[in-house]
Amino acid sequence: MLSVIAVKLPENSYEIAIAPGSLTQLGSYINKLNLGKKILLVSNPDIFSHYGEIALTSLKDSGFDVFTHSIPEGEVNKTLDSIAQIYDTALENYLERSSTMLALGGGVIGDMTGFAAATWLRGINFVQVPTSLLSMVDASIGGKTGVNHPKGKNLIGAFYQPRLVLIDPQVLKTLPVREFRAGMAEVIKYGVIWDGDLFAKLEGADRLDDIAYLSEELLQIILTRSCQAKANVVGKDEKEAGLRAILNYGHTIGHAIESLTGYSVINHGEAVAIGMVAAGRIATKLQMWTQEEEIRQNHLIQKAGLPTKIPTDLNSEAVIETLQTDKKVKAGKVRFILPTQIGKVTITDRVPSDLIREVLEEIRI
Amino acid sequence: MLSVIAVKLPENSYEIAIAPGSLTQLGSYINKLNLGKKILLVSNPDIFSHYGEIALTSLKDSGFDVFTHSIPEGEVNKTLDSIAQIYDTALENYLERSSTMLALGGGVIGDMTGFAAATWLRGINFVQVPTSLLSMVDASIGGKTGVNHPKGKNLIGAFYQPRLVLIDPQVLKTLPVREFRAGMAEVIKYGVIWDGDLFAKLEGADRLDDIAYLSEELLQIILTRSCQAKANVVGKDEKEAGLRAILNYGHTIGHAIESLTGYSVINHGEAVAIGMVAAGRIATKLQMWTQEEEIRQNHLIQKAGLPTKIPTDLNSEAVIETLQTDKKVKAGKVRFILPTQIGKVTITDRVPSDLIREVLEEIRI
């Protein structure tokens, strides 16, 4: 089973290859790209202990000189300091413009490796091998790279496209169940904003809360259609001038929740799940879609084992205030992505603060 | 006198406007671009004391909200830490994606402001107002932005295009004479690599070693033709895939000299001047151009008050070793730009080390 998705951009088009067991073929996939022989593989200790050797063996068998760089796990390390350390390793190993930085890991590793690749020697080759569901269907596609500022997530970064994204669904078997669910939040998002068929397929599944219950076929469909949805949107709007903003469905309030809970209690997918519930409710109240559709969405979120309520200790005023400092604020107005039906959304900056407040209170635990 | 040069790129084309007194019109120039109202002006204390008020007044008169950020003078401050400080100011003033970072200063300010603009919120608007001859004819055009790594110059950075480059030749009156000469090194470079007419015009001038002896007309010609040369080259090869490398004429050995003298004793333009003398001699020895042309080049370099000899205390072996760590090294081979006639160069990685050594010894003081 091999699905190949072409991400078509004005410059720097590339492919996403999705195939069970493909990690063992990593070297030959990269060989086809005609890049230089030096590769800096960036990972974290846990991922590296599971998949480092498989990746290294495949790369070395294909004749690459591979160096490794490890970053301790966690969003807390997604800093400019960690990037400076990648630079040091790049310098020590004489990486050249034709060399490649390869991210083996989840979104944090991918975002940082991408930013380091974007800014070392003003940009060297970058390959993504995502190992979490979240990074497979979201972070690894679309060229967003970067790190956090002490006062805000992802404020520092660059748009930089990989030369290849290689997805091996088999690596998801070692993913903690909570992280699998977090990835499902983004999958459900694609169903709501873009792909009503994907949404229906998810509704048809017996369970969505643990990869153990998913068939290899359904997993391939989920990955392929999610990546395709993201690739379509990014292909039409690489630099987030307009359409691409729809990918932020659930993220407006989601980011505020993450930020206020210190990026630790609630993970990104969980925050997006709650954000989708909030946005869905706002849309119902504005009569943009039906309550029936809102219920279908929330049912799917619950089926994936994701939260649908805001934690009680989170102050609504604090959420509203945090919305104002979000990157997506334009001329002081908070921008919301709201569904108009399953598979379709619209962008608006005309949601009254009172309505946001009302909804935040309603969906409290 | 207004010259407008269009820099045509696949994406993000922009204009270079060159006009005496144009700094007082800065606000209306930017107004035409339809950007957001917030501008972060980045400068250094010296430049700001001369031109800050003129720029601020013009921007405010055009209705912009202007914030300022100052970086202490000098290449030593061109670090990732300084960038982090620009980020802090950007955050404090709630810069948005539609906002602009404006560099008022020389190459160091331009490179850093450009890199901060490229990486804040994954890229906001960037405007260059270069105040040194070097930054007018070189650094401000072509989208190279970045900072130094403790172990190498400009190793960290991004290709990022400004929305506008505004050049007011009148600000050169306060430029120290040594820095004016450093800029002339790049002007002479354009004559050698691209524009034989410019070279002839420079040969026709009485003196080139001090701006006080240049007519307003000649200065306008020098700026316009130099910018045009760079814009032409960059327009054909934005990301340095091939042709753009010719802009590095004189820089291969030049960078090594700068690096070995700690970026302080010899400035960039002086190092490039010596690098051109070395490259010119190599070309003569390889019979790529004539000795007569080499002499014409060296005469012009001397007329601009620039050095033509390598300092005695600089070890030739150290220079050769340093060449190996340069960004321009490809698969371990040192790449040289060599003139084939006045106005034309070629790129080669086949200069024997022995020949480099021989030339380095010959042009020693």
Set down the secondary structure blueprint:
Two copies of one chain form a homodimer.
Chain A: E1 3-7, E2 14-18, H1 26-31, E3 38-43, H2 45-61, E4 65-70, H3 80-92, E5 100-105, H4 107-119, E6 125-130, H5 133-139, E7 144-149, E8 152-159, E9 164-167, H6 177-193, H7 196-204, H8 216-236, H9 251-260, H10 268-285, H11 291-303, H12 316-323, E10 336-341, E11 344-348, H13 353-362
Parallel strand pairs in A: 2-9, 3-4, 3-5, 5-6, 6-9
Antiparallel strand pairs in A: 1-2, 7-8, 10-11
Helix pairs in contact in A: 3-4, 5-6, 5-8, 6-7, 6-8, 6-10, 9-10, 9-12, 10-11, 10-13
InterPro entries (chains A, B): Dehydroquinate_synthase (IPR050071), DHQ_synth_AroB (IPR016037), DHQ_synth_fam (IPR030963), DHQS/DOIS_N (IPR030960), DHQS_C (IPR056179)
Cofactor (chains A, B): Co(2+); Zn(2+); NAD(+)
Family (chains A, B): Belongs to the sugar phosphate cyclases superfamily. Dehydroquinate synthase family.
Q: Describe it for me?
A:
2 copies of one chain form a homodimer. Chain A has 365 residues and is of the alpha/beta class. The first copy, chain A, folds into 2 domains: 3-174, Rossmann fold (3-Layer(aba) Sandwich), CATH 3.40.50; 177-362, Up-down Bundle (Dehydroquinate synthase-like, alpha domain). Helix content of chain A is 44%, strand content 17%. Chain A is built from 13 helices and 11 strands. Chain A has helices at 26-31, 45-61, 80-92, 107-119, 133-139, 177-193, 196-204, 216-236, 251-260, 268-285, 291-303, 316-323, 353-362, and strands spanning 3-7, 14-18, 38-43, 65-70, 100-105, 125-130, 144-149, 152-159, 164-167, 336-341, 344-348. In chain A, the strands form 3 sheets. Chain A has a 7-stranded mixed β-sheet. In chain A, strands 7-8 form a two-stranded antiparallel ribbon. In chain A, helix 2 (45-61) links the parallel strand 3 (38-43) and strand 4. In chain A, helix 6 runs parallel beside helix 10 (268-285) and helix 10 (268-285) runs antiparallel to helix 11. The longest helix of chain A has 21 residues, at 216-236. The N and C termini of chain A lie far apart (43 Å). At the A-B interface, helix 3, helix 4, strand 7 and strand 8 of A face helix 3, helix 4, strand 7 and strand 8 of B.
